[in-house]
Design brief:
The two termini are 41 Å apart. The strands form 4 sheets. Strands 3-4-2-1-7-11-12-10 form an 8-stranded mixed beta sheet, with helices on both faces. A 6-stranded antiparallel beta sheet has the order 14-15-13-16-18-17. Strands 5-6 form a two-stranded antiparallel ribbon. It contains 14 helices and 18 strands. It is an alpha/beta fold and 431 residues long. The chain has 2 domains: 3-223, 3-Layer(aba) Sandwich (Carbamate kinase), CATH 3.40.1160.10; 303-422, VC0802-like. Helix 1 crosses helix 3 (59-81), helix 4 (86-106) runs antiparallel to helix 5 (111-119) and helix 9 runs parallel beside helix 11. The protein has helices at 15-25, 43-56, 59-81, 86-106, 111-119, 121-136, 146-149, 163-173, 202-214, 247-255, 263-271, 325-338, 360-373, 392-399; strands at residues 3-7, 33-37, 141-143, 180-184, 187-189, 195-197, 218-223, 228-229, 241-242, 244-246, 276-280, 289-292, 303-316, 342-347, 351-357, 375-388, 406-409, 413-419. Strand 5 (187-189) and strand 6 (195-197) form a beta hairpin. 41% of the residues lie in helices and 23% in strands. One of its GO terms (biological process) is homoserine biosynthetic process.
Length: 431
Protein backbone atom coordinates (compact mmCIF):
# COMPACT_ATOMS: atom_id res chain seq x y z
CA UNK A 1 0.00 0.00 0.00
CA UNK A 2 1.15 3.51 -0.83
CA UNK A 3 2.32 5.86 1.90
CA UNK A 4 2.36 9.64 1.49
CA UNK A 5 4.75 11.74 3.60
CA UNK A 6 4.67 15.52 3.77
CA UNK A 7 7.55 17.66 5.06
CA UNK A 8 7.00 21.34 5.81
CA UNK A 9 9.46 24.19 5.55
CA UNK A 10 10.84 23.80 9.08
CA UNK A 11 11.77 20.17 8.42
CA UNK A 12 13.92 21.06 5.37
CA UNK A 13 15.16 24.51 6.34
CA UNK A 14 18.90 23.84 6.01
CA UNK A 15 21.51 21.17 5.34
CA UNK A 16 21.24 19.67 8.82
CA UNK A 17 17.47 19.36 8.49
CA UNK A 18 17.76 17.74 5.06
CA UNK A 19 20.26 15.21 6.42
CA UNK A 20 17.75 14.40 9.15
CA UNK A 21 15.04 13.84 6.51
CA UNK A 22 17.38 11.41 4.76
CA UNK A 23 18.00 9.52 8.00
CA UNK A 24 14.27 9.42 8.69
CA UNK A 25 13.36 8.10 5.25
CA UNK A 26 16.04 5.41 5.53
CA UNK A 27 13.93 3.86 8.29
CA UNK A 28 10.93 3.42 5.99
CA UNK A 29 11.58 0.76 3.37
CA UNK A 30 8.03 0.21 2.09
CA UNK A 31 7.41 1.29 -1.49
CA UNK A 32 5.86 3.10 -3.22
CA UNK A 33 6.50 6.14 -1.05
CA UNK A 34 5.35 9.58 -2.14
CA UNK A 35 7.17 12.48 -0.45
CA UNK A 36 5.63 15.97 -0.68
CA UNK A 37 7.95 18.83 0.28
CA UNK A 38 7.42 22.52 0.99
CA UNK A 39 9.84 25.35 0.28
CA UNK A 40 12.83 25.54 2.63
CA UNK A 41 12.29 27.55 5.83
CA UNK A 42 10.90 31.01 5.07
CA UNK A 43 11.59 30.85 1.34
CA UNK A 44 7.97 31.52 0.38
CA UNK A 45 8.02 34.75 2.40
CA UNK A 46 11.27 35.73 0.68
CA UNK A 47 9.74 35.02 -2.73
CA UNK A 48 6.72 37.15 -1.89
CA UNK A 49 9.05 40.03 -0.98
CA UNK A 50 10.96 39.45 -4.22
CA UNK A 51 7.66 39.55 -6.10
CA UNK A 52 6.77 42.89 -4.51
CA UNK A 53 10.16 44.36 -5.44
CA UNK A 54 9.75 43.18 -9.03
CA UNK A 55 6.27 44.66 -9.34
CA UNK A 56 7.27 47.97 -7.76
CA UNK A 57 10.30 48.38 -10.01
CA UNK A 58 12.75 48.44 -7.08
CA UNK A 59 15.72 47.12 -9.05
CA UNK A 60 18.34 47.32 -6.31
CA UNK A 61 16.07 45.72 -3.70
CA UNK A 62 15.05 43.05 -6.19
CA UNK A 63 18.65 42.12 -7.03
CA UNK A 64 19.63 42.00 -3.37
CA UNK A 65 16.72 39.69 -2.51
CA UNK A 66 17.40 37.43 -5.49
CA UNK A 67 21.06 37.17 -4.51
CA UNK A 68 20.07 36.28 -0.93
CA UNK A 69 17.87 33.46 -2.23
CA UNK A 70 20.71 32.22 -4.42
CA UNK A 71 23.26 32.37 -1.61
CA UNK A 72 21.03 30.55 0.89
CA UNK A 73 20.21 27.68 -1.44
CA UNK A 74 23.75 27.30 -2.76
CA UNK A 75 25.12 27.35 0.79
CA UNK A 76 22.84 24.43 1.60
CA UNK A 77 23.97 22.56 -1.52
CA UNK A 78 27.65 23.08 -0.69
CA UNK A 79 27.13 21.98 2.92
CA UNK A 80 25.47 18.77 1.73
CA UNK A 81 27.59 17.77 -1.26
CA UNK A 82 30.98 19.39 -0.67
CA UNK A 83 33.25 18.97 -3.70
CA UNK A 84 30.51 16.98 -5.50
CA UNK A 85 28.12 19.94 -5.44
CA UNK A 86 28.69 21.01 -9.06
CA UNK A 87 25.77 19.26 -10.83
CA UNK A 88 23.24 20.24 -8.14
CA UNK A 89 24.48 23.84 -8.07
CA UNK A 90 24.01 23.95 -11.82
CA UNK A 91 20.37 22.84 -11.49
CA UNK A 92 19.73 25.38 -8.71
CA UNK A 93 21.30 28.16 -10.75
CA UNK A 94 19.14 27.19 -13.73
CA UNK A 95 15.97 27.43 -11.64
CA UNK A 96 16.99 30.82 -10.24
CA UNK A 97 17.71 32.09 -13.74
CA UNK A 98 14.25 30.94 -14.84
CA UNK A 99 12.74 32.64 -11.79
CA UNK A 100 14.45 35.91 -12.71
CA UNK A 101 13.23 35.65 -16.30
CA UNK A 102 9.65 35.06 -15.17
CA UNK A 103 9.74 38.13 -12.96
CA UNK A 104 10.89 40.25 -15.87
CA UNK A 105 8.31 38.70 -18.18
CA UNK A 106 5.29 38.94 -15.86
CA UNK A 107 5.89 42.06 -13.72
CA UNK A 108 3.09 43.94 -15.48
CA UNK A 109 0.57 41.08 -15.45
CA UNK A 110 -2.17 40.87 -12.82
CA UNK A 111 -0.70 40.00 -9.43
CA UNK A 112 -2.37 36.59 -8.82
CA UNK A 113 -1.03 35.29 -12.14
CA UNK A 114 2.44 36.74 -11.50
CA UNK A 115 2.40 35.31 -7.97
CA UNK A 116 1.76 31.77 -9.14
CA UNK A 117 4.34 31.88 -11.91
CA UNK A 118 7.11 32.82 -9.49
CA UNK A 119 6.37 31.66 -5.92
CA UNK A 120 6.26 28.04 -7.10
CA UNK A 121 10.07 28.15 -7.36
CA UNK A 122 10.46 27.72 -3.61
CA UNK A 123 9.17 24.16 -3.83
CA UNK A 124 11.01 23.46 -7.09
CA UNK A 125 14.30 24.46 -5.46
CA UNK A 126 13.79 22.48 -2.25
CA UNK A 127 12.74 19.26 -3.99
CA UNK A 128 15.62 19.51 -6.48
CA UNK A 129 18.10 19.63 -3.59
CA UNK A 130 16.41 16.96 -1.50
CA UNK A 131 15.97 14.51 -4.37
CA UNK A 132 19.65 14.88 -5.23
CA UNK A 133 20.66 14.34 -1.60
CA UNK A 134 18.60 11.17 -1.26
CA UNK A 135 20.21 9.82 -4.43
CA UNK A 136 23.60 10.77 -2.98
CA UNK A 137 23.02 8.66 0.13
CA UNK A 138 21.79 5.65 -1.81
CA UNK A 139 18.03 6.03 -2.06
CA UNK A 140 16.54 5.69 -5.52
CA UNK A 141 14.29 8.69 -6.15
CA UNK A 142 12.17 10.04 -8.97
CA UNK A 143 11.71 13.83 -9.02
CA UNK A 144 8.18 14.73 -10.11
CA UNK A 145 6.95 18.17 -11.14
CA UNK A 146 3.66 18.71 -9.31
CA UNK A 147 2.62 21.13 -12.05
CA UNK A 148 2.39 18.08 -14.34
CA UNK A 149 0.53 15.99 -11.75
CA UNK A 150 -2.04 18.21 -10.03
CA UNK A 151 -4.27 19.56 -12.81
CA UNK A 152 -6.18 22.71 -11.89
CA UNK A 153 -8.20 25.54 -13.35
CA UNK A 154 -6.71 29.04 -13.73
CA UNK A 155 -8.07 30.49 -10.48
CA UNK A 156 -4.63 31.77 -9.49
CA UNK A 157 -3.62 31.65 -5.80
CA UNK A 158 -6.63 29.41 -5.03
CA UNK A 159 -6.76 26.93 -7.91
CA UNK A 160 -9.44 24.23 -8.05
CA UNK A 161 -8.41 20.65 -8.74
CA UNK A 162 -9.56 18.68 -11.77
CA UNK A 163 -9.83 15.40 -9.90
CA UNK A 164 -10.28 13.08 -12.87
CA UNK A 165 -7.35 14.44 -14.86
CA UNK A 166 -5.19 14.57 -11.73
CA UNK A 167 -5.99 10.97 -10.79
CA UNK A 168 -4.95 9.73 -14.24
CA UNK A 169 -1.60 11.51 -14.08
CA UNK A 170 -0.88 10.60 -10.44
CA UNK A 171 -1.59 6.91 -10.99
CA UNK A 172 0.70 6.87 -14.00
CA UNK A 173 3.43 8.54 -11.92
CA UNK A 174 3.19 5.96 -9.13
CA UNK A 175 3.39 2.97 -11.45
CA UNK A 176 7.12 2.76 -10.64
CA UNK A 177 6.86 1.16 -7.21
CA UNK A 178 10.57 0.81 -6.45
CA UNK A 179 11.45 4.46 -5.94
CA UNK A 180 10.74 7.33 -3.61
CA UNK A 181 8.75 9.86 -5.61
CA UNK A 182 9.69 13.41 -4.59
CA UNK A 183 7.26 16.18 -5.49
CA UNK A 184 6.19 19.64 -4.42
CA UNK A 185 3.40 20.78 -2.15
CA UNK A 186 1.29 23.89 -2.74
CA UNK A 187 1.59 23.99 -6.53
CA UNK A 188 -0.24 22.63 -9.56
CA UNK A 189 -0.71 23.51 -13.21
CA UNK A 190 -3.37 24.06 -15.82
CA UNK A 191 -3.77 21.74 -18.80
CA UNK A 192 -1.90 24.37 -20.80
CA UNK A 193 1.08 24.10 -18.44
CA UNK A 194 0.64 27.37 -16.54
CA UNK A 195 1.73 27.25 -12.88
CA UNK A 196 -0.91 27.62 -10.18
CA UNK A 197 -0.97 27.51 -6.38
CA UNK A 198 -3.55 25.84 -4.15
CA UNK A 199 -4.05 28.53 -1.51
CA UNK A 200 -3.95 28.30 2.25
CA UNK A 201 -2.37 25.11 3.65
CA UNK A 202 -1.69 24.07 0.07
CA UNK A 203 1.17 21.68 0.88
CA UNK A 204 -0.94 19.56 3.22
CA UNK A 205 -3.69 19.63 0.60
CA UNK A 206 -1.23 18.39 -2.03
CA UNK A 207 -0.46 15.35 0.11
CA UNK A 208 -4.19 14.66 0.51
CA UNK A 209 -4.77 14.98 -3.25
CA UNK A 210 -2.09 12.41 -4.03
CA UNK A 211 -3.29 10.06 -1.29
CA UNK A 212 -6.86 10.29 -2.52
CA UNK A 213 -5.87 9.54 -6.12
CA UNK A 214 -3.73 6.56 -5.08
CA UNK A 215 -6.06 5.12 -2.40
CA UNK A 216 -3.11 5.45 -0.05
CA UNK A 217 -2.84 3.59 3.22
CA UNK A 218 -1.98 6.71 5.23
CA UNK A 219 -0.76 10.30 5.05
CA UNK A 220 1.93 11.35 7.52
CA UNK A 221 2.68 15.02 8.13
CA UNK A 222 6.07 15.50 9.77
CA UNK A 223 6.34 18.49 12.11
CA UNK A 224 8.57 19.87 14.84
CA UNK A 225 5.90 18.93 17.40
CA UNK A 226 4.79 15.38 18.29
CA UNK A 227 1.18 15.87 17.24
CA UNK A 228 -2.06 17.78 17.77
CA UNK A 229 -2.75 19.35 21.16
CA UNK A 230 -5.93 20.31 22.97
CA UNK A 231 -4.63 23.88 23.28
CA UNK A 232 -1.75 26.02 22.09
CA UNK A 233 1.18 24.98 24.35
CA UNK A 234 2.54 28.52 24.07
CA UNK A 235 -0.60 29.90 25.79
CA UNK A 236 -1.77 27.00 27.96
CA UNK A 237 0.72 25.59 30.45
CA UNK A 238 -0.91 22.14 30.74
CA UNK A 239 -1.88 21.46 27.13
CA UNK A 240 -1.98 17.74 26.33
CA UNK A 241 -1.64 15.82 23.10
CA UNK A 242 -4.73 14.43 21.38
CA UNK A 243 -3.49 11.07 20.16
CA UNK A 244 -6.64 10.20 18.25
CA UNK A 245 -9.56 12.31 16.98
CA UNK A 246 -12.08 12.01 14.18
CA UNK A 247 -12.17 13.94 10.93
CA UNK A 248 -15.25 15.80 12.16
CA UNK A 249 -13.59 16.81 15.41
CA UNK A 250 -10.51 18.07 13.57
CA UNK A 251 -12.72 20.17 11.29
CA UNK A 252 -14.54 21.62 14.30
CA UNK A 253 -11.25 22.55 15.96
CA UNK A 254 -10.01 24.18 12.77
CA UNK A 255 -13.26 26.11 12.33
CA UNK A 256 -12.90 27.60 15.78
CA UNK A 257 -9.31 28.67 15.12
CA UNK A 258 -7.10 25.82 16.30
CA UNK A 259 -3.85 25.36 14.37
CA UNK A 260 -4.66 21.84 13.23
CA UNK A 261 -5.18 20.43 9.74
CA UNK A 262 -7.18 22.59 7.33
CA UNK A 263 -10.61 21.12 6.42
CA UNK A 264 -9.81 21.12 2.70
CA UNK A 265 -6.98 18.68 3.44
CA UNK A 266 -9.25 16.36 5.40
CA UNK A 267 -12.06 16.23 2.83
CA UNK A 268 -10.29 14.04 0.23
CA UNK A 269 -8.99 11.75 2.98
CA UNK A 270 -12.34 11.35 4.72
CA UNK A 271 -13.99 10.38 1.42
CA UNK A 272 -11.76 7.30 1.27
CA UNK A 273 -11.22 6.73 5.00
CA UNK A 274 -7.48 7.43 4.72
CA UNK A 275 -6.04 8.29 8.17
CA UNK A 276 -3.80 11.31 8.62
CA UNK A 277 -1.01 11.09 11.17
CA UNK A 278 1.00 13.98 12.61
CA UNK A 279 4.45 12.93 13.81
CA UNK A 280 7.59 14.61 15.11
CA UNK A 281 10.66 14.58 12.89
CA UNK A 282 12.70 15.47 15.98
CA UNK A 283 11.57 12.47 18.05
CA UNK A 284 10.59 9.43 16.01
CA UNK A 285 9.68 7.49 19.14
CA UNK A 286 7.13 10.04 20.34
CA UNK A 287 3.52 8.85 20.01
CA UNK A 288 1.82 10.56 17.06
CA UNK A 289 -1.64 12.05 16.66
CA UNK A 290 -4.01 10.39 14.19
CA UNK A 291 -7.11 11.80 12.52
CA UNK A 292 -9.50 9.15 11.23
CA UNK A 293 -13.02 7.78 11.27
CA UNK A 294 -13.06 6.72 14.93
CA UNK A 295 -15.12 9.15 17.07
CA UNK A 296 -14.75 7.35 20.40
CA UNK A 297 -12.03 9.62 21.76
CA UNK A 298 -13.40 13.00 20.64
CA UNK A 299 -15.08 13.93 23.91
CA UNK A 300 -12.52 12.54 26.35
CA UNK A 301 -10.38 15.68 26.56
CA UNK A 302 -11.73 19.25 26.45
CA UNK A 303 -10.00 21.52 23.93
CA UNK A 304 -9.40 25.24 24.40
CA UNK A 305 -8.96 27.64 21.47
CA UNK A 306 -8.21 31.33 21.95
CA UNK A 307 -8.81 33.80 19.13
CA UNK A 308 -7.09 37.10 19.82
CA UNK A 309 -7.66 40.61 18.41
CA UNK A 310 -11.39 40.15 17.92
CA UNK A 311 -13.92 42.88 17.15
CA UNK A 312 -17.50 42.55 18.37
CA UNK A 313 -20.21 44.13 16.25
CA UNK A 314 -23.71 44.46 17.74
CA UNK A 315 -25.97 45.18 14.77
CA UNK A 316 -29.58 46.35 15.17
CA UNK A 317 -32.28 47.60 12.87
CA UNK A 318 -32.87 51.34 13.01
CA UNK A 319 -36.68 51.06 13.08
CA UNK A 320 -36.86 48.52 15.93
CA UNK A 321 -38.13 45.78 13.64
CA UNK A 322 -37.07 42.16 13.84
CA UNK A 323 -33.61 40.99 12.86
CA UNK A 324 -35.30 38.53 10.52
CA UNK A 325 -33.92 36.11 7.94
CA UNK A 326 -33.80 38.73 5.18
CA UNK A 327 -31.71 41.13 7.28
CA UNK A 328 -29.40 38.36 8.48
CA UNK A 329 -28.95 37.27 4.87
CA UNK A 330 -28.00 40.82 3.92
CA UNK A 331 -25.49 41.24 6.76
CA UNK A 332 -23.84 37.85 6.36
CA UNK A 333 -23.66 38.41 2.60
CA UNK A 334 -21.68 41.59 3.22
CA UNK A 335 -19.41 39.59 5.52
CA UNK A 336 -18.70 37.12 2.73
CA UNK A 337 -17.96 39.94 0.28
CA UNK A 338 -15.49 41.43 2.78
CA UNK A 339 -13.69 38.09 3.11
CA UNK A 340 -14.12 37.97 6.89
CA UNK A 341 -14.89 35.01 9.14
CA UNK A 342 -17.22 35.29 12.13
CA UNK A 343 -15.90 33.17 14.98
CA UNK A 344 -19.12 33.77 16.92
CA UNK A 345 -22.59 34.48 15.52
CA UNK A 346 -25.48 35.08 17.90
CA UNK A 347 -28.92 36.38 16.93
CA UNK A 348 -31.69 37.90 18.99
CA UNK A 349 -35.08 39.26 18.05
CA UNK A 350 -33.68 42.70 17.22
CA UNK A 351 -29.91 42.21 17.01
CA UNK A 352 -27.16 40.18 15.38
CA UNK A 353 -23.83 39.82 17.20
CA UNK A 354 -20.65 39.00 15.27
CA UNK A 355 -17.13 38.38 16.56
CA UNK A 356 -14.70 39.07 13.72
CA UNK A 357 -10.97 38.75 13.21
CA UNK A 358 -9.40 42.21 13.27
CA UNK A 359 -8.19 42.77 9.68
CA UNK A 360 -8.46 46.58 9.37
CA UNK A 361 -8.22 46.62 5.58
CA UNK A 362 -11.30 44.38 5.40
CA UNK A 363 -13.08 45.29 8.62
CA UNK A 364 -13.28 49.06 8.22
CA UNK A 365 -15.11 49.03 4.84
CA UNK A 366 -17.54 46.43 6.22
CA UNK A 367 -18.33 48.53 9.29
CA UNK A 368 -18.81 51.64 7.17
CA UNK A 369 -21.20 49.75 4.90
CA UNK A 370 -23.23 48.36 7.81
CA UNK A 371 -23.49 51.78 9.47
CA UNK A 372 -25.29 53.12 6.41
CA UNK A 373 -28.25 50.80 7.01
CA UNK A 374 -28.09 49.61 10.62
CA UNK A 375 -27.32 50.81 14.13
CA UNK A 376 -23.89 49.35 14.93
CA UNK A 377 -22.06 49.18 18.25
CA UNK A 378 -18.43 48.12 18.15
CA UNK A 379 -15.92 46.84 20.70
CA UNK A 380 -12.29 46.09 19.78
CA UNK A 381 -9.33 44.19 21.28
CA UNK A 382 -11.31 41.22 22.51
CA UNK A 383 -10.45 37.54 23.00
CA UNK A 384 -12.84 34.79 21.95
CA UNK A 385 -12.64 31.68 24.11
CA UNK A 386 -13.84 28.48 22.43
CA UNK A 387 -14.07 25.32 24.53
CA UNK A 388 -14.95 21.96 23.04
CA UNK A 389 -16.64 19.41 25.31
CA UNK A 390 -16.69 21.63 28.40
CA UNK A 391 -18.85 20.99 31.43
CA UNK A 392 -20.29 23.83 33.51
CA UNK A 393 -17.55 23.65 36.14
CA UNK A 394 -14.75 23.93 33.59
CA UNK A 395 -16.41 26.82 31.79
CA UNK A 396 -16.99 28.64 35.07
CA UNK A 397 -13.35 28.16 36.09
CA UNK A 398 -12.05 29.46 32.76
CA UNK A 399 -14.37 32.49 32.93
CA UNK A 400 -13.60 33.41 36.54
CA UNK A 401 -12.48 37.03 36.89
CA UNK A 402 -13.35 37.86 33.30
CA UNK A 403 -16.29 39.89 31.98
CA UNK A 404 -18.26 38.06 29.31
CA UNK A 405 -19.41 40.46 26.57
CA UNK A 406 -21.11 37.84 24.41
CA UNK A 407 -21.56 34.11 24.56
CA UNK A 408 -23.04 31.15 22.74
CA UNK A 409 -23.25 27.46 23.52
CA UNK A 410 -24.43 24.26 21.89
CA UNK A 411 -24.10 20.60 22.83
CA UNK A 412 -20.38 20.45 21.98
CA UNK A 413 -18.90 23.97 22.06
CA UNK A 414 -19.06 26.92 24.43
CA UNK A 415 -17.94 30.37 23.31
CA UNK A 416 -17.36 33.46 25.41
CA UNK A 417 -15.97 36.83 24.40
CA UNK A 418 -13.83 38.72 26.92
CA UNK A 419 -11.85 41.99 26.95
CA UNK A 420 -8.39 41.21 25.62
CA UNK A 421 -6.78 42.87 28.63
CA UNK A 422 -8.30 40.14 30.85
CA UNK A 423 -6.87 37.32 28.74
CA UNK A 424 -3.15 38.08 28.50
CA UNK A 425 -0.49 35.69 29.69
CA UNK A 426 -0.64 31.97 30.36
CA UNK A 427 -3.86 30.01 30.76
CA UNK A 428 -4.44 26.79 32.71
CA UNK A 429 -7.12 24.15 32.12
CA UNK A 430 -8.47 22.89 35.46
CA UNK A 431 -8.60 19.09 35.64
Amino acid sequence: MTQVFKFGGASVQDAAAIRRVGELLARFRARPLIVVVSAMGKTTNALEALLAAAREGEAADYQERLETLRREHLTTVEALFGDRAGPVKKRVESLLTELDQRHRRHARRERPFHYDQTVCFGELLSTTIISAWLDEIGMATEWQDARDLVVTDDCYQAANVDWQATAERVRAMASDNDRIHITQGFIGGTVEGTSTTLGREGSDFSAAILAHCLDAEEVTIWKDVPGIFNADPRRVDNAVQLEQISYDEAVELAWHGAKVIHPKTLGPLQQKSIPLTVRSFEDLEAPPSTIGQDTRFDTQTPSLILREAQTLLEIRTRDFTFMDEARQHDILGRLVEAGLHAGLIDAGAMRLSLSLDGHPERLEPLVASLCEDYAVERCDDLTLLNVRHADDALLAALSAGRDSLAERRNADTAQRLFPGSQCRGTWHIPR
